[in-house]
Structure formats: C-alpha cells, structure tokens
Amino acid sequence: MNSPSPRGDASASGASFDAIFIGSGIGCLGAAAVLARHGMKVLVLEQHSIAGGMTHTFRRKGYEWDVGVHCLGKVHDPNAQLRQVFDFVTDGALGWARMAPVYDRLVFSDRSYDFIAGAEAFQEELGRAFPSERKAIATYLGLLRGVERASQRYFIQHVLPRWMTPLTYPVLGWPFRRHSNRTTGDVLRSLTSDSRLLGVLTGQWGNYALPPGESSFAMHALMAEYYLEGGCYPVGGAGSILDTIAPVITRAGGQLRVRAEVKEILVRDGRALGVRLTSGEDLLARHVISGAGAARTLGVLLPERWRPSEAVRALQRIPQSIGHLGLYLGLRGSPAEVGLPATNVWVHAGYDHDANLRAFRNDASSPLPVVYLSSSSARDPAWTQRHPGRSTLTAVCPAPYSWFERWEGTRWHRRGPEYEALKAQLTERLLSVVFDQFPQLRGRVEHQELSTPLSTAHFAHRPRGSIYGLEHSPERFRQPWLRSRLPIRDLLLVGQDAVSVGVGASLMSGVLAASVILRRNVLGDIERQSSAYRRAA
Ligand SMILES: Cc1cc2nc3c(=O)[nH]c(=O)nc-3n(C[C@H](O)[C@H](O)[C@H](O)COP(=O)(O)OP(=O)(O)OC[C@H]3O[C@@H](n4cnc5c(N)ncnc54)[C@H](O)[C@@H]3O)c2cc1C
Predict the structure, then answer these.
(1) Quick one: how far is CA 455 from the chain centroid?
(2) Is the CB of residue 324 below 6 angstroms from any atom belonging to ligand 1?
(3) How far, in Å, CA of 509 to CA of 396, rounded?
C-alpha cells in the first residue's frame, strides 16, 4: 500500500470526513444518517451511477421501477422500532402507505391462499383452509414470536467488543441459535405432516431465497413474523428512501459520491485508515464502514495480509444466495385502468418448494419454481400524480448464476445474440405467468426488460449476481465473526450480510454500526426522540 497521509486528514475535494462508507445501500445510508444526526461529517461512496443500492429506482421511457423494495413490514406503526428508525434517519420526511389487507397471495395449481394482515386474521384464514391443523398453526405463530424475541439479543451482541465474544456468543446467542441451527423444513415437519400446509407456510421462501430444506428456520421465522401485520410501501416510491435520507447527511456537511468505486481498504497496524478508489484517489477517515458485503469486504477489499483467516475460510463454505431474473413491465393505463392489486402474488410450481427449485436448477426447462409479482404503481398513493396514464409490474424468479457465467466479462447491452435469445425465451415464460394471473394486461405492455444475475453483478457488484448476499442457511448464523465489528479496528460491516436480508434488517445493521462508533445506545436515543415524530404525524 502507498503511504496515505496522516490520520485525520481525510479528504475528498478538500473536505475532511469522520467516516467513509463503501456503498450507498440502506445499511450505509442509515448509519451515515445516524452519524450525521450526531454531528459527524460522512462521505458515502457508490460505484454505480445511481445511489441507493437496492433501494434505487430506474427509469425507461417515462416508466419507473424499484428493484429491491416491494414491501416492508412493521413501518405502519409509529411505535414500532423500525418505523422509529426510519423516522429518525429521514427526519420524519418519509411517508408509508399500507398495502391491501391481503399482503401475500400464494397461488398453486389447485387453489390460492391469502395471508391477511394481523396475526388473528392470518390464523383464522389459514385455519379455514386447514381446519384439522389449527393447533399446528397456533404453535407455529408462537414460534415466530419466540424467534423474533430471541433475535434482539442475538443481534445486539454483534456490537459488543470482540473480546467478549467467547462469553456473549454462546450465552446471548443461544436462544436464537436454537432456532437458526435447524432448517425451516425440520421445524415445520415437527408441527405438521400436511405437505400442503408446509408449502403454504413457506410460500414466501423467495423473500430469503432458500427453500425450506435448506433455509435456517430463524430466517424464515423473522421474515414471516415481520410481515404478519401486513405490508407497507414508501410514498413516492422506493426512491423516496434516498431522497429523504440524503438531506439529513448533507445538512451535516456530508457528501454522497456516485461512480466512486472503492478498490481497497487502507489499513495500517491493524486499523482501517480509509479507502483507495479505482481512480487512485486515497480518502482517509476515522472510521470505515463497508456495505459491500462480507465476501467482498473481507476477501477482496482488505489487503491480503489483513484478511481474517477464520472468516475467509468460512466464506468459502457459505455460498452466495441464488441469482434472480427480474422482468420489468411498463403498462399503458393508470393503476385504476390496469386493475392490479397492491398484494404480493407468489405463483408456485407446486407445494414442494425444495423439489421445484432442484428441478429448475438442474433443468432450465422445468417449471419456474416461484414467480413473485409486484406492482409499485398499485402501492404508491403518489404514483398517478408522478406517472399519469402509466403503470408497472415486476416479476421476479430465482435463477442460478451458472446459467449466465459464460457471458461474464461481456459488457451490459453487448452480451451477444445467444444471451439475448436466452433472455427472450425466459421473458416469454415469465410473461405467460403474468398473463395467466392478470389477463387484462394483454395488449398493455409498452416496455419490457429482463435483468439476469449478470445485471445484479454489474449494477450492484454482488458476487455471482446473488439476490440477497450470503445464503441464509443454518451455517450462516453459526459465524461469530459475521457481525458489525470486524477484526480490523475502525472497520465495520453493515447491510444484509451483517444482520440479514431485507431493507429493514439492513437499516438496523446501520444503527448497530453507528452505536459502535458513537459508543452509545442509538436505539435508546431514537426511541426517546420518536414522540416528536408521533406528534407531528
Ligand atoms: C429483487 C429484489 C427484491 C427485494 N424486495 C425486497 C422487499 O420487498 N422488501 C425488503 O425489505 N427487501 C427486499 N429486498 C432485499 C433488500 O433490497 C436488501 O436486502 C437490502 O436493500 C440490502 O441493503 P444493503 O445495505 O446490504 O446494500 P445493497 O443494497 O446491497 O447496496 C450495496 C451498495 O454497495 C455498492 N458497492 C459495492 N461494492 C462497492 C465498492 N467497492 N465501491 C463502492 N460501492 C460499492 C453497490 O453498488 C450497492 O449500491 C429485495 C432485493 C432484491 C434483489
């Protein structure tokens, strides 16, 4: 490493910063806003031309799509911790719209099932569909709540000093790891032998991209519990998240820079000093916070001699989650005219999600294991004003990176006719699912565009085009090193790898990191301040 200028002389265009962020995903943005609200000057560096990570939106021909924000849980309640955090990092500027009472519709070939907002309504509706399984459903809901409670202590111990880990990890972590150590399938089979009920309870598996036989039950439970009270969508679309957080950062003198790719984390004597950009520019700060994922941060951005061997070895055992296809449709007609619901629709190939995914992975011509359909135009109350006469729908489906690997190294939009032919074929298959569910959309498609795992790798720098970072398997939750505090001093990890997939979880990882830097209970501060936002609301 070239010798950087002395510590404290951090500079970007002559300015000095307290903290540098690698990436502008919600984990980084959240931590940056918390630090900014505590008077710190921060610099957020994003390699892409648009900031926001998976919360960014993109536009074509007057249409706008979100990428990684379709539905959030809990934020409808001003007293919920996640809502309080959002209020804090946006200074109360971000509004939320509740989705339809049916937040998820699971479609199987013989019938569909609705998940209705509110634990009681959920239980009642499923009980009607599976009358002999009412007891199993009640036990299941109790388990979800238990995992959620246990998770609080598990994640809090992530920010405790590393020397405490041998003590805190087994003691504080155990109530959570009791659940995270088992697969979703294992736990649910101990409650019921009804394979249809198993398929329905795990019908949202796409939210963590691992079927029941492979996913950690804790991940399943956290996700299912998170949505039990229904779904919400940011007013003004996913882009409002960045639009409302950025002013909080800049008001305190902070900056966001796009097209600023970090090539290396600068380390001296075991402390992170700053970063080097691919342009060759060195930027120094007291703290470096990476939202670039565990594998890239520890295995690529850190100079080789500082890579923690335990983590690097473990990262070879924990695969990245599967990639995905995203079909983005621009539709002629207002939301009222196209008649799409503000409900997540999951179209499944069958009740056995493990078998469906296995078959598809082995043979691309097998039925699509699950297709998730979501319409931002149907969810955003500000949509019609922003995009009159237009609507959108997004279809998401898992897809392995290996199918596209041969085009790695080719350029976006210049990957050649074979790649385009494969995309056209996959587009047709997704479109047929869309028209099956919503026949009224035939003749309304004005724009269609398919993303593949190569697009995710290109735009979000995700290893192997992974949809949600490290796989949410039992093994992932057995890693004491996978946490905000990393073995390099003044280097922290935020984002979905630090806690778990999801905008809410990634944002919370940012709060945890900010607590470490500020050496205070930031969640306590946020809770105390939340009454001001409640009064304003
Ligand atoms: C298709 C899809 C749908 C989803 N739907 C939902 C949903 O409905 N609800 C929900 O809660 N969650 C959803 N998620 C998950 C959620 O979007 C993510 O878990 C979350 O946004 C991840 O945030 P993060 O902080 O880890 O950062 P990311 O969003 O992963 O951003 C990381 C950023 O770092 C940048 N970066 C990487 N390396 C460098 C570098 N070297 N230098 C500079 N910048 C770098 C990347 O370009 C990227 O912008 C979805 C995700 C996907 C892909």
Answers:
(1) 16
(2) yes
(3) 25
CA 508 to chain centre: 11
- Say how far apart CA 494 and CA 155 lie, in whole Å: 12
Cα 510 to ligand 1 centre (Å)? 13
* Helices 217-227 and 165-180: angle between axes, nearest 10 degrees: 70
Q: Which residue has the tokens 């011509």?
A: 365
* 468 touches ligand 1 (CB under 6 Å): yes
Give domain limits for the chain.
Answer: 17-95+235-318+479-536, 100-230, 319-465
Residue nearest (by alpha carbon) to ligand 1 atom 48: 53
Q: Predicted ipTM?
A: 0.99
Q: What is the CA radius of gyration of the chain?
A: 22
- Please state, in angstroms and rounded to a whole number, the distance separating the CA atoms of residues 312 and 473: 17
Residue 402 CA: distances (Å) to CA of 117, 205, 324, 454: 38, 21, 12, 10
Q: Ligand 1: which atom is nearest the Cα of residue 261?
A: 42
Class of CATH domain 17-95+235-318+479-536: alpha beta
Residue by residue, what is the 3-state secondary structure of 486-500?
CCCECEEECCCCCCC
70-103 confidence digits (pLDDT tens): 999 999 999 999 999 999 999 999 999 999 999 9
pLDDT digits (tens, 9 = 90+) for 499-519: 999 999 999 999 999 999 999
Distance 295 CA to ligand 1 centre (A): 14
C-alpha 256/C-alpha 56 separation (Å) is: 14
Question: Which tokens belong to 273?
Answer: 């000093």
CA 278 to centroid of ligand 1, rounded, Å: 21
Burial class (CB in 10 A: 0-12, 13-18, 19+), 218: buried
Rounded CA-CA distance 84/507 in Å is 12
CA torsion sign, 374 to 380 to 383 to 384?
positive
Ligand 1 atom having least distance to the Cα of 26:
25
Residue with tokens 């057995």: 478
Q: Whose CA is nearest to atom 15 of ligand 1?
A: 502
The CB of 327 under 6 Å from ligand 1? The reply is no
Locate the ligand 1 atom nearest the alpha carbon of residue 459 and give its number.
47
Lookup: tokens for 215: 């996913």
Closest Cα to atom 32 of ligand 1: 25
CA of 469 to the centre of ligand 1 (A): 9
